[in-house]
Write a structure and sequence with these properties.
This protein has twelve helices and eleven strands. Helix 3 links the parallel strand 4 and strand 5. It is an alpha/beta fold.
Length: 276
């Protein structure tokens, strides 16, 4: 599966069958390497994207393991892989403690879920899945039992740390949220980031990579927001994406934040800056 260096990330919650197909076809036309679908999508909902694209991979960013039975997930993956061989990448994640009262040790729960995928009637191959990983132990698990990792809401320093820890083999594919061409973009970026700055897994991770508690408070400092959710010209966003690649990422998926429909204009602008 060739993801190339740059993909796009979009929430599945804003896509219907028609717009999902248009998203995949547009991303492929523009030359992006993959479409990542957020919002813990059910796998059958990805069929319009797989049907509309010719060869572009479709990845989940992420399937929340509290919302799926591993046997069902493996069966749905196998059905789509039979129909669209080699085009589906299964991004899997534990979510965050604030999202479920059942939350328990994330490493144990994730390992058990992977055991379930391995024990299914038709197992999901390790190289067709990746893990949302922030901390060292989850990063290690992503390398040991999947293709690699798909970190979310992370700075360049985290990408560098992940590559140093995992070495040259495993996939590192961070999401890069951004606001393309909007002035003032910082307030839109801060509104997006505020939700994640209330979640302990993201804030604890940011505190490990050079930010202080004061950067987390009041919706995030200008420095944090500008580094994690860059705003401005497509060329500036491209510079931030390349910084992740220079730090060791194999693939960066860019997300136009706050989109309520397919962000065609922004994708075209980013393609011009990133893929020319």
């Amino acid at each position: 599966m060739d993801l190339k260096n740059i993909g796009v990330w979009i929430s599945g919650r804003i896509l219907d069958e028609d717009s999902a197909g248009r998203a995949a076809a547009l991303a492929e036309e523009l030359g992006f390497g993959a479409v990542w679908v957020g919002g813990s999508p059910r796998l059958p909902s990805l069929r319009p994207m797989l049907s509309a694209g010719q060869s572009i991979p479709i990845a989940t960013g992420i399937v929340n393991i509290w919302q799926y039975d591993p046997d069902q997930l493996a069966a749905e993956f196998a059905e789509l892989d039979d129909e669209f061989p080699g085009r589906l990448l299964l991004g899997i994640g534990i979510g965050h403690p604030e999202a479920t009262s059942e939350y328990r040790k994330p490493l144990t729960k994730t390992s058990e879920f992977l055991d379930g995928l391995d024990a299914a009637e038709r197992p999901v191959p390790a190289d067709r899945r990746c893990l949302a990983a922030l901390g060292p132990k989850m990063l290690d698990l992503s390398a040991a039992r999947s293709l690699g990792t798909h970190p979310y809401f992370t700075p360049v320093a985290h990408t560098r740390f992940a590559r140093e820890r995992l070495g040259s083999g495993p996939l590192i594919a961070p999401e890069l949220a951004c606001v393309v061409g909007e002035d003032p973009g910082r307030e839109r970026a801060r509104a997006y980031g505020a939700n994640y700055l209330r979640m302990s897994n993201y804030t604890n991770n940011l505190l490990r990579f050079g930010y202080e508690q004061s950067d987390i408070e009041n919706g995030g400092s200008d420095r944090l927001i500008d580094e994690v959710v860059p705003q401005g010209s497509p060329q500036h966003i491209a510079e931030m994406a390349r910084a992740h690649l220079d730090a060791g990422a194999d693939h960066v998926c860019v997300q136009q934040v706050g989109a309520s429909e397919l962000p065609e204009r922004e994708w075209r602008a980013l393609a011009g800056a990133l893929l020319a």
